[in-house]
Model the fold of this input.
Amino acid sequence: MLLLAIDTATSAVTVAVHDGDRVLGEHTEVEARRHAEILTPTIERVMDQAGRRPADFTAIAVGVGPGPFTGLRVGVATAVTLGLALDVPAYGVCSLDAIAQSVRESGMTQDFLVATDARRKEVYWARYRSHADRVERVSGLPGVDRPAELPEDLRALPVAGRGPLLYPDSFGQPLEQGDVDAGSLARFALGELAAGRELLPVQPLYLRQPDAQPASAQKSVLAR
Amino acid sequence: MSGPLILGVESSCDETGVAFVRGNELLGDVVASSVDEHARFGGVVPEVASRAHLEALVPTIRRACEETGHKLADVDAIAVTSGPGLAGALMVGVSAAKALSWALDKPLYGVNHLAAHVCADVLDHGPLPEPTVALLVSGGHTNLLLVRDIASDVVELGSTIDDAAGEAFDKVARVLELPYPGGPHIERAAADGDPQAIRFPRGLTARKDLEKHRFDYSFSGLKTAVVRWVQERQVAGEPVPVADVAASFNEAVVDVLTAKAIDACRTHGINDLQIGGGVTANSRLRALAEERCAAAGISLRVPRVRLCTDNGAMVAALGSQLVQRGLPPSSLDLPADSSMPVSEVKAS
Ligand SMILES: [Zn+2]
Done:
């Protein structure tokens, strides 16, 4: 098997190739900003390094957020199109789960939080528990809230993601893992699939409605 | 059938378009529109459009393949609108096109949306006469272009300095309590009205404006004039003659659109005018353009309406011109350029 893992839900553009046993190649562009520009060239580069061709893929796993929408869509659009063009299945992974996977892999054994930048002074967050063989999201679907408005006991947990870097006053113990790395995302996806657990549909986890006001009738000047 | 097989992808505004073109021939063209989702907002909401593009992406590509009987692996090149347009919307199409290019190992051409509009006519009427003047009018653009070579030499003579013509229709429709999008509803209301009933202003046609803005357009003053005229009737306690207002507004728009286009042809000694963009659905625009072109000895080309609105066909058509002329493809790291200048027909 050959899994392509990509994520564009954080400020990183990250790509990994996993053959079922190990990561064959991985590259992460931090502070990427230009997600649409660099994602496919990064995929090309990682695949070239791994000595594989596009036709070698058997599956794709992509971070479906939550994350800033524009960048997030770059990864999802790329994944669904690759899936179509190469006729391979594409799976969605909650991007916070991928960060949690790398926290667990670093040896974390207690509960922890992942909080990423949701802009507008808010964070996307979820609570995780490390098990011997996997990490589990124990707080349901990720939330989107102002950091200071999260319950005290949550904020006291060790926190991964950019949240604690952006809002140091609201979080107690920042962890090292800031952005998603695709190697962790690949291992998380393969672990879930091997255990027979379902991954997510390949659709962005938006968690917010589009920011728009319906046109008001007051614009009309006709008398009623 | 001869020529390269090109897949075109369009996502710059509210239509997700995918089409196959071989040479100058359109083989199949599928468009998914999010226009209904924008109706309650009275205009295109970028985030709503971007979400819709992503949802429509794979089904639209699939349908284009089914309609033409072509597989993605058959294509010789992929063309995509890389700008101008809504940044988030463009990124969906650009990302998809790059994925296709890499997965299929086929060259990628990032093309200019405005030049693609001009090129759409190739699919209906064959090779473009060059040079030609092109007038593009839609909800997103109002441009007057000088096209010396569609693949490499397109110059902007003028554009709107405020609202696009289609936007003006939307805004006036709202004032008249007509639904979104305004164009077709204004035209329907105008059918029973007198276009000469009210003399609404023609933007940037005064002598002082002509010096600096000879080939530019302005529609915000016209909209304001319509609002003021309607309000005056109400203050006076008179009924508002919606049909006359719609007809007179429509006439003001198409008058200035066509007058400046003809002037551009004359000024540059060009005998060919092409009109594209969604507002070409307006029958009065087409009729007045025909009348004035005939009087001025200019031959007019207008593609069928389906090809005037945003679609993948026009993108594939331009991609096909670039491939046929042996121009190098764009780089795989090409950006989605929301303000891509029209002089840049192809992204490097
Ligand atoms: Zn357009």
Remarks:
- Residues B 113, 117, 138, 140-141, 277, 310 surround zinc ion (CB under 6 Å).
- The CA atoms of residues 281 and 305 of chain B lie 6 Å apart.
